[in-house]
Specification:
The chain is of the alpha/beta class. The protein contains seven helices and seven strands. The protein is elongated, with a radius of gyration of 24 Å.
């Protein structure tokens, strides 16, 4: 490494070790990234333990999504279509979930119709739950349509872990 180690010792008094290592100082970009990573890590502590309802009809997509969400400390329950999602929201006590991740293309009732139905429930606490689209529909017009249909956000598949964390942090704070 190109460094040195020096030792000075005196009987009955002790020893002094001096270690010199050569290295380069990191540039400001490095420290900015480290600070951003620490900030994200601290923010993640705020969402740990939050309850998510995942509406996803595809078993493989659901398995992957659940694993990713549980890895960042979220508690996830899954339903397989819009009808089950609406039924779950009607049956459970208010504030049982902190967020719904809603697939758009599902059988029986799509994510848009499920969102609209949830937004019309009689219990105000249930109608204001954050709902985020989790869909293969990845274009800007898809994001705008999701928001126009009453959703609070849009995440496209395949899931980018950093993006899903940022979206969830912005919604769940």
């Amino acid at each position: 490494m190109g460094g040195t180690i020096d030792v000075e010792s005196e009987l009955g008094k002790g020893s002094k070790f001096t270690v010199v290592l050569k290295h380069h100082l990191a540039d400001e970009k490095y420290y900015a990234q480290v600070n951003e990573d620490l900030s994200l890590l601290n923010a993640n502590k705020n969402i740990r333990g939050k309850h998510i309802l995942l509406a996803e009809d595809n078993d493989l997509n659901a398995e992957i999504t659940i694993a990713l969400l549980e890895d960042i400390g979220l508690i996830v329950e899954r339903v397989e279509d819009g009808i089950q999602c609406v039924a779950k929201m009607e049956q459970i006590p208010a504030k049982s979930y902190d967020l719904i991740l809603m697939d758009i293309q599902m059988p029986h009732m799509d994510g848009y119709k499920a969102t609209q139905t949830i937004r019309q429930l009689s219990n105000k606490d249930k109608t204001t739950i954050p709902i985020t689209a989790l869909t293969a529909n990845a274009f800007e017009e898809d994001r705008k349509k999701a928001v126009a249909q009453g959703m609070n956000g849009h995440i496209s598949k395949p899931i980018d872990v950093d993006k899903i964390e940022k979206v969830l942090l912005s919604i769940l704070k």
